[in-house]
Design a protein that fits this description.
Radius of gyration: 21 Å
Helix content: 10-25%
Strand content: 25-35%
Structural class: mainly beta
Shape: globular
Distance between the termini: 72 Å
Number of helices: 3
Oligomer: single chain
CATH class: Mainly Beta
Largest sheet: 5 strands, antiparallel
Length: 448
């Protein structure tokens, strides 16, 4: 096929795929009762379903009406702590009450595939992401919000010139920022509103021309001696070759004092949120599982991450369920795959994770987990698009997930916002980054 015919074929395939995405989105349902069985400690997993063209259905973005706010349970007050932000993805409360926000998006060059099929997939996803409000350039900065009430009184750019930043962690006078390709360290003093000192590279992180899951998160151990960094996979299910997954789909452990690094856990397709469960002390992670196996496969999940554990990617899902799409089968790896602790729903894009360590919310919430669900794209009926709460008892999940913050979908199926990062400050308030609404929401308890 000559170049002219190749371009014509690419254009035709791209147009057909885009039309398919539009038609699927037009017939989407917005009901909360979507028959999702992938929830809780023992999710029901149906047989996988595959098709030549995957379901592509994401809620198109719509500006939130003025005076409209997300809905929380009775007794809670929701305010726009800061609005007019630029794609806020992640939030991090500082000990002095300031709030850091990573304004970020995918790198300009990422997720490069070869061949016509790969080109079509990329064009379709670019079209869908743009329609969903996610096709904006990355601002590449950390913004500091300052304010003691329901609204930030000031904002300033703390660090600029980053490369798709995401996770943040303060250890002593060092502020760590996880860019898409490196873990950086900046000097920090309480009250700073700007850091101009160039960041010191602590470690390179896997990136490159594919960089399929570009977000990298970082949390510090409770004693501050170790750092844990998430690295997502370079594919949906290994379609770019197993060699492209080298150093991916894992949580890494760094010891800054010695420069030592190691793989803490592997086989985690796309881990994002991480936090320490306050009662057990275990590190928990929220993980996005694979797509294109049907509406009710595979559930995203959260799990207490076992040191040295392997969680299946790409060879199996949710424990030892073999994924036959993987070209190189590894029964030995599947046999060692751990089953996650708790399913968060199919295709919910559960990204944020924060345990409630405050005491200002009712006791029901103490020690439980808040999860920011960015929302589905590979499901006929929408799932996610909300913040859920998972109650915990004795350090373990103690019930089914509860809708905590909703109102991110309009009645006609448009996205008024999409929750991502969630965090709890020292006063017990919950913050939610909404990267489509360009808002950071603050939730406090005002009831009796």
């Amino acid at each position: 096929m000559n170049k002219l015919h190749t371009r014509w074929a690419e254009a035709r395939l791209g147009a057909v795929a885009a039309m398919l995405a539009l038609s699927l989105a037009a017939c989407a349902s917005t009901t909360e009762d979507i028959g999702d069985t992938g929830l809780g400690p023992r999710p029901e997993l149906p047989s996988p379903q595959t098709s030549l063209m995957p379901t592509i259905n994401i809620a198109p973005v719509q500006t939130r009406p003025s005076q409209s706010i997300p809905t929380a349970p009775p007794g809670f007050t929701v305010t726009a702590f800061a609005s007019g932000l630029e794609h806020p993805r992640w939030v991090y409360p500082l000990p002095d009450g300031d709030l850091l926000v990573a304004e970020s998006n995918a790198p300009a060059q990422h997720d490069e595939h070869g061949g016509i099929v790969g080109w079509v997939r990329k064009q379709v996803m670019k079209f869908v992401m743009k329609r969903a409000g996610a096709g904006v350039p990355s601002p590449d900065r950390i913004v500091l919000l300052r304010g003691q009430g329901g609204t930030a009184q000031s904002r300033s750019v703390l660090i600029s010139g980053l490369h798709s930043p995401f996770g943040m962690a303060l250890v002593g006078d060092s502020l760590y920022v996880a860019d898409t390709d490196a873990l950086l360290r900046f000097p920090y003093r309480a009250g700073d509103t700007q850091i101009t000192t160039p960041g010191e590279k602590v470690a390179d992180l896997p990136a490159g021309p594919i960089n399929h899951h570009w977000t990298k998160n970082v949390v510090a151990s409770r004693d501050g001696q170790r750092l844990y960094v998430t690295v997502g996979s370079n594919s949906n299910v290994g379609e770019n070759g197993i060699e492209a997954e080298e150093g991916r789909a894992m949580i890494l452990e760094f010891t800054p004092a010695t420069g030592r690094s190691r793989v803490f856990a592997a086989g985690l397709r796309n881990p994002n949120g991480m936090d320490w469960q306050p009662e057990s002390g275990a590190l928990w992670a929220a993980v996005n599982e694979r797509d294109e196996l049907g509406d009710n496969l595979v559930p995203d999940y959260m799990t207490a991450v076992k040191d040295g554990g392997f969680y299946g990617f790409p060879y199996s899902y949710y424990g030892q369920h073999v994924d036959t799409r993987v070209k190189e089968q590894r029964p030995d790896k599947v046999a060692s795959a751990l089953t996650p602790d708790y399913a968060l729903g199919n295709h919910t894009a559960s990204l944020g994770l924060a345990f409630y360590t405050g005491r200002s919310f009712p006791q029901h919430y103490w020690g439980g987990a808040f999860v920011g669900q960015h929302g589905s794209w590979n499901r006929k009926e929408y799932s996610g698009y909300k913040v859920v709460f998972v109650p915990f008892e004795h350090g373990r999940p103690g019930g089914m997930p509860e809708t905590f913050l909703s109102g991110f979908l309009s009645a006609d199926g448009h996205a008024l916002g999409r929750p991502v990062g969630v965090a709890v400050d020292k006063a017990g308030a919950l913050y939610v980054a909404d990267d489509v609404g360009n808002v950071v929401w603050k939730v406090v308890y005002s009831g009796k």
